[in-house]
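During data preparation, we tokenized the protein backbone, and the record follows.
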Amino acid sequence: MPNRIFGAIHHRDFVRRDFVAKAWYAGGVSVTASDRESQIKPLEPPDCHHLSAAIGWLELGDVAEAGAELDQIASQFRSHPHVLVVRYDICAKAGKWDAAAEIARTLTELEPHRPGMWVSLAYAVRRKTGGGISQARAILVQARRAFPREQTIAYNLACYECQLGDLNAARSWLEKACALGNANKVKLMALEDPDLKSLWPELREARA
């Protein structure tokens, strides 16, 4: 979320929007270019083996086995960021968005310099009980101040603004996302993104 440590599992939004980079794993958290270096000490055997196995089970779609592997990690390492992002994925795949949001919030506190953690928090908050697009948007507006050149954040803000009905703001964020990377790829992805459906006619016309 590619520069990866393990495998890669993306949530639906990340599949659509992960054009800057990249699926770094420890989990399905979308991790952008400035996320590539971490000061977090990696797990050692046997805990790293359980983590790798959990990721493998997630790639196979077996959430229960993935969770069982994480439960075998020593208790003092279960709050390790690499473990938490896999736990986030398990919760996301199970539709447990309240728990996923709590995990993502913890990750933003542990590694606030990683924009992918903020994207993950917004993703979960959009879906959690009492959450929604407005709250997710607020998270990424805040993150944008810290990471003004992160394409994923700009793109996701375009999606949120479009869903909230502010098409001018959506266009502006989409233009920013295009300016930060491969504009053609961004536009092609936007044309397949239901969140941006209101912009499809003008995007198609621009490509004609």
